Amino acid sequence: MLTVRDLDAWYGKSQVLRGVALTIGEGEIVALLGRNGAGRSTTLKAIMGGVQRTGSIRLNGQEISHLAPHAIARAGLGYVPEDRAIFPDLTVAENLILGEKRGVAARGAPFALADAYALFPRLGERASAPAGALSGGEQQMLTICRTLMGNPRLIMVDEPTEGLAPMMVERVRDLLAEVARRGVTILLVEQKLAIALELAERLYVMGHGSIVFEGTAAEFSANAKIRHEWLEV
After folding, report:
1. What is the domain range of residue 74?
2. Which end of the chain has the lower number of beta carbons within 10 A, N or C?
3. Residue 130: inside a domain, yes or no?
4. C-alpha span between 225 and 209 (Å, rounded)
5. pLDDT tens, 27-49?
């Protein structure tokens, strides 16, 4: 579904990504691991067209590296940023509605407000409340559901459990698992290794802006050298 080849990215004159390559098949959950500063978030931003980059990015066989971010979203790629990027003065319902991409044909039944409220009933209970009044975990749920309102075939989720209480971490994990069961492919950046290993079928590990490991969760768990060199503090 998503194929990235020779992806380089910069912030100004500083090169962050060097030759990143990854592939995600339809229906997979794939985790992108690494220490802070390794380039994981930049990889998602580069795929989405949010930073200066070169390389090939193909979504469902279509080259999208030349497209603007809004066109990439309309092509079927959703992005849940690390900072959540809610509109705090708008209501929960209004934030969700802003995620709709009208005029874009949905694959299967379109994701609607009722689906968001069914997945996370708290959003329905707070539908008329300002989004800024939600807790951090509730805002994370809102951001994920807002992205789903655009009926993406693949979503990239950046650090969804960061800063959340253990109970909300479990809810986010369960929500992502349910999203995958509904047929949405997921590329997940997640600092909590246990969550990543529980959700993902395959993993990539980044170090210094490049991919240093690719394999299944079992292969990763058996590779103490990779864990020690690129993940452990």
Report:
1. 2-85+152-230
2. C
3. no
4. 19
5. 999 999 999 999 999 999 999 99
